[in-house]
Amino acid sequence: MKRCFFGITSFFILLALFSSFLVPDVMGVEQKDLKARFKIDDESCLINGENVTMTNPPYIKNARTFVPIRALAKAIDLEDKNVIWDPSSRSVTLVKEYKVVSLENAGTLKTVVVKLTIAAGSSTMHYSAQDLSNSIDNSIQLDAIPEIINGQMFAPLRFVAEAFGYEVIWNAEERTVEIWDVKISGD
């Protein structure tokens, strides 16, 4: 019995060790692109390779990093026309278009529009995605409430960046937070 157990265990260990040689790489190679680096209480930041000075620095409140929404929008490649401020509701809507491969239509490209709306003083974030034939609407409860300080909307960085598919990395020692664009290539 022990010999059988040892033989089966050895087989699975060897299979695990050599599976990378036997199975083709279908996932591809991960490529990371640094989009932004913000430092707490520092008005200087790095956005898309450029040094930028913000009028108000990022800060931490209730263990969440808050960043001016315009700087955050620029970091995730949103043009000014895709950052829509509504003064009556004190909310901002971020809109981003993605080109994705359609599995239903033999691999053709289709456009998906993602919208994210957050309001100052509200713990609810509205998130929607749609293409020509499908639509998804969802409301998400935030544990960090966006707020306006010195005339600027501040939003919780992680929630916004991850809603648009970016990776967020916090460095406690340096008190910095980074936004990364992660892509998988087929090579």
Q: What does this 3D model show about the protein?
A:
It is a single chain. Helix content is 19%, strand content 48%. It has helices spanning 2-22, 69-75, 157-163; strands spanning 29-39, 44-47, 50-53, 59-61, 64-68, 83-86, 91-101, 109-119, 124-130, 135-141, 147-149, 152-156, 167-171, 176-185. With 187 residues, the chain is of the alpha+beta class. It has a five-stranded antiparallel β-sheet. The longest helix is centred in the first third of the chain and has 21 residues, at 2-22. The model is unreliable at 1-26 (pLDDT under 50). It has a single domain, classed as Copper Amine Oxidase, Chain A, domain 1, CATH 3.30.457. The chain is globular, with a radius of gyration of 22 Å.
Could you give a quick summary of the protein structure above?
Helix content is 19%, strand content 48%.
Kindly provide the radius of gyration, computed on alpha-carbon positions and rounded to a whole number of angstroms. 22 Å
- Percentage of β-strand residues: over 45%
Shape: globular
CATH level-1 class: Alpha Beta
**Which class best fits the helix and strand makeup?**
alpha+beta
> What strand order characterises the main sheet?
3-2-1-14-13
Averaged pLDDT, please? 82
Helical proportion, percent range: 10-25%
CATH superfamily caption: Copper amine oxidase-like, N-terminal domain
The second-level CATH architecture is 2-Layer Sandwich
Number of domains: 1
The end-to-end distance, rounded to whole angstroms, is 45 Å
- Biggest sheet details: 5 strands, antiparallel
CATH topology: Copper Amine Oxidase, Chain A, domain 1
Number of E-state strands? 14
- Unreliable stretches (pLDDT < 50, length at least 5) are 1-26
- Along the chain, the helix and strand elements come as HEEEEEHEEEEEEEHEE
Number of helices: 3
